[in-house]
Design the sequence.
């Protein structure tokens, strides 16, 4: 848990300042001319996204869930209503008007819809006390919340890896190279964590099934 929390706090500490400064000139995403409220929408997205990231870390901590079930319910409401839902809806808007091209636009929109969908499914499962399903949907939701960090890492690595191809594959067009890195980084950023979350859930289920089989097996009876 500690490394996860450190990474989340560091990401939020790095991400927030330009968007709580109320100074559009500090935005790291250029605002499209046709969408003047871009900075406001993006800033609110980042604030709510930070709430989702920090509360999500607390929610997946087994010690916190087991020792403080009431706090888990309360923080869970903040994760959903004060984090994922507003950040996802605002992410959908900034995703649609992104200045970084169609490839990242498709990735952003699909990611926002999946994030909203997994979070709402997890919330509804908890409301009807389906805690197995609740856990599964919230693991997916949290993997998508944190995927925004792997997204940045992939994009930064891809920018370095593609640089030698600037004058060949990209014909000297830096904007094209940047859009390619952003597009690939965007897709890989959430597809890989979501696949990892599915693998982790399946692995846990397989282990539980094996334990149940072992527990129900009667003491060895002589065969043959
Ligand atoms: C998982 C669903 C999310 C989606 C779909 C999403 C979408 C977006 C989009 C579309 C942008 C603008 C960049 C562009 O135009 O391509 C953006 C920027 C940003 N998002 Fe999210 N986001 C998500 C989650 C988060 C979370 C959980 C955080 C946590 C703090 C976050 C923090 C940021 C920051 C800091 C920026 C500004 C870019 C920067 O300064 O590096 N996002 N997001």
Sequence:
């Amino acid at each position: 848990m500690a490394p996860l929390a450190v990474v989340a706090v560091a990401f939020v500490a790095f991400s927030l300042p330009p968007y709580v400064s109320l100074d559009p000139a500090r935005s790291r995403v250029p605002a499209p001319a046709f969408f003047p409220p871009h900075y406001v929408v993006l800033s609110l997205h980042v604030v709510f996204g930070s709430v989702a990231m920090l509360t999500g870390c607390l929610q997946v901590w087994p010690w916190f869930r087991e020792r403080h079930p009431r706090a888990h319910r309360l923080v869970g409401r903040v994760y959903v209503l004060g984090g994922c839902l507003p950040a996802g809806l605002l992410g959908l808007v900034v995703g649609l008007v992104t200045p970084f091209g169609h490839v990242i636009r498709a990735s952003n929109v699909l990611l926002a819809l999946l994030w909203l969908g997994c979070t709402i499914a997890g919330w509804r499962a908890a409301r009807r006390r389906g805690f197995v399903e609740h856990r599964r949907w919230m693991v997916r939701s949290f993997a998508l919340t944190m995927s925004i960090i792997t997204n940045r890492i992939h994009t930064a690595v891809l920018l370095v890896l593609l640089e030698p191809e600037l004058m060949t594959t990209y014909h000297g067009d830096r904007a094209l190279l940047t859009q390619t890195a952003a597009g690939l980084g965007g897709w890989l950023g959430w597809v890989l964590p979501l696949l990892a979350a599915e693998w982790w859930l399946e692995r846990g289920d397989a282990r539980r099934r094996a334990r149940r089989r072992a527990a129900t097996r009667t003491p060895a009876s002589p065969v043959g």
Notes: Helices lie at 2-15, 17-20, 38-59, 62-67, 69-96, 102-127, 131-162, 174-216. The chain has a mean pLDDT of 94. The radius of gyration is 21 Å.
